[in-house]
Amino acid sequence: LDNWAKQNEKGEQCLSRQVLGKPSIELEQITNNLRQILDNMFDEYSQILNKLGIEETAVNIDHVDNTPEHVLLLKQCLEMYDQEYMVKDCIRDIVSGEGFATQQHLAGSIALWKSESYLDEEIQRKIRQLH
Asked: Which of 19, 28, 87, 123 holds its CA 20 to 30 A away from the CA of 4?
């Protein structure tokens, strides 16, 4: 989660320097790094499921059966970071694309990037307590 926060900060800074309609190699690298962090999270989650002998399809955050609470928290965490990644990737496409984005789009994109609206602080706090 700390690596994600560092990349998010870099993305904010990069967006504040972004020239509309110009591809940003730096922003692309940041979103690639976020994707790698997310992939690592998924790998760690899969390893935990394997150790516990739980099938991924059996983990349903809406129906808590015998699934350990930490597994449910991890799944929720992955889902929210996955959603947040998709938003950031779309922001990169919008501000780097030709012709569509305006200064208003850029300002809104910076605010959206910074807000991380899909990330639930309570879930993150609980995840940090697991470690």
From this structure: 19
- Taking CA atoms, 62 is separated from 3, 40, 83, in Å, by 28, 24, 18
**CB-based contacts of 3: which residues, under 8 Å, 6+ apart?**
37
Q: pLDDT of 46-62, one tens digit each?
A: 999 889 888 776 666 66
pTM value is: 0.86
In sequence order, the 6+-apart residues with CB closer than 8 A to the CB of 71 are: 48, 49, 52, 54, 59
pLDDT digits (tens, 9 = 90+) for 6-60: 999 999 999 999 887 788 899 999 999 999 999 999 999 999 988 988 877 666 6
Distance CA 21, CA 40 (A): 31
